[in-house]
User: Fold ABC-2 type transport system permease protein from Clostridium amylolyticum.
Amino acid sequence: MYEIWIITRKNLKLIFDSKKSILQFVVPIVVLLAFMKLLSIGSSPIKIGVIDKDKTTSSNMVIESLKKVSFMNTVEVKDDEIKQAMLQRDIVLGITIPKGYEEGIVKQSPLSIELSVGEDNSMAEGIRSIINIKTKDLLDLSKASYKDKEKYSILINEYKTEKVNISSSFLQDISSQYETTEISMGFLIFYLMIRAVVISGIILKERENNTYARIFMSPVGSFKYLLGNIIANLIVLFTQVVIMLLTLQYIFKINTGIKFIPMMLLLMLIILVAISFGILCVALFENIQVYSTISNLIISGTSMFSGSFVPVKLLPESVQKVSFFTPQRWVMDGIQKMQQGMEIKSLTMNFLVLLSFSLAFFLIAVYKMRSSQKSIIAINS
Assistant:
């Protein structure tokens, strides 16, 4: 155990051997967090432009009903400015309440509230529904007043001030936020795998400067040597992942739809897979340039058709089936399951597959390293 700790400490010193190494630790965290924050901006409250030509209690109640929706902000605009405001994206759509709106309500023949929308605006139907519901409430009050304006005014004031034990809420479509989380986590997984391979490359550097041979001439075997590299790698990447996830949850308050512990487990397992894969490549390739090129190509290629860069549903069906032969796909699949509200036990297969990947890569690497160790001992004996 002491030998493993010595190797781990030695690797950590090699990882953080300069100020540049500290930057390599901090900068990716900042860049990824900034990227995730920028992608999440689209989920901020939308602005609705309002033109109230009626200026009555009824028209004000329609506007108030829109203000109560948590993901909407209403702003007053002028009639001749509404199109310009939409072109400049200051507002997503405009609402014009015509003059005589309340009078039409009282007479049971309401004037239509006009919606100004762009070519593609999915919010229009939802806003129209809110307006129709409020108009229906006002028409019911008018009906109860027998079309008498004074009685209607009394009823509408009572309606406004009377406390009724009813609560309502509007369902917000958070699918876009979940897709943002998927893309962000996909890039995070890609970074973790690349970084794990870079750290595993320390072994090749030690092979070039003959440190590798000297270590194997000591009582330290290939298993302990590799375990020391894995632990150092885990410490670095685990720290980065914890910082990112805590920042997302408690500082940026981004709704990922995933609980902290399941996400942490999925990311830790993909880190293990990446480290084991890096060590396997070290065992197979002696040249550091060949090692870097092939490992990066494999990680980039598998990330492309595993759903790390684009949502899996956008990939061809044949590619989706093949993607389950990549470890990244099992992480993305676990993220989707958690976003759908499944419990952590539903991720059992995902955990087992990821563990199988890491064990297979690690055992093959150990076997190859032992063969290399025997050759080194034979040459030096």
Q: What stands out?
A: Residues 163-173, 376-380 have pLDDT under 50 and may be disordered. The first helix runs from residue 2 to 15. Strands lie at 46-52, 72-76, 93-97, 114-116.
